[in-house]
């Protein structure tokens, strides 16, 4: 296979576009070549097959959708309270809406994983790893809430992103006076996350 990292990345990004627009069944080398604007047969020189292309799309999406380290570093200079977690969630939502194609491709990858055992195994491991990493980050950064907070917040934000990117009309006006998606992000955080770590300790003491 050809060793040209820039061309390979461009082809993988073209694959992301095709996957988001056409779904997994439309992800062919011919479609990737057309999306990338390269001669027919180019993609077949870079990938060992469709499974190889899917694996590389999965790896590429993890890079495209990851938080900016500089943004994370800046946020961590703020007080460790609920507003900081809200800021992280707003950053997550901004990245999801800023790369809508990437997120739709990620959702298509999840659907495809239900049909491919090897992709299901790798996707399960990577997503579970991200969730565990989030719990570890929560503890290391001394943010309010614990593992349960992170798990429920993950589920709520995933649901919000899914609806907002696919069926935005479902959420429009669902809570009068609450904007979509930013107002809903604030409501999710306020409902799930304690105000401070100290408040969390007090609540546990009273139980």
Structure report:
This protein is mostly helical and 207 residues long. It is 72% helix and 0% strand. The chain contains eleven helices and no strands. The N and C termini lie far apart (61 Å). The relative contact order is 0.11. The C terminus is likely disordered.
Give a short overview.
It comes from Streptomyces incanus. This protein has 207 residues and is mainly α.
Pick out its properties:
mainly alpha; TetR_C_31; 207 residues; elongated; TetR/AcrR family transcriptional regulator; HTH_TetR; Homeodomain-like_sf; DNA-binding
Q: Report low-confidence residues grouped into runs of 5 or more.
A: 201-207
Count every beta strand, where a strand is a DSSP E run of 2 or more residues: 0
The amount of beta strand, in percent, is: under 5%
Mean residue pLDDT: 93
Oligomer: single chain
Elements, N to C (H/E): HHHHHHHHHHH
Rg for CA atoms: 20 Å
Structural class based on helices, strands and sheet pairing: mainly alpha
Question: What's the total helix number?
Answer: 11
Topology (elements, then pairings):
Blueprint: H1 5-22, H2 29-36, H3 42-46, H4 50-64, H5 69-75, H6 82-98, H7 100-113, H8 117-140, H9 147-166, H10 182-192, H11 197-206
Helix pairs in contact: 1-2, 1-4, 1-7, 4-7, 6-10, 7-8, 8-9, 9-10
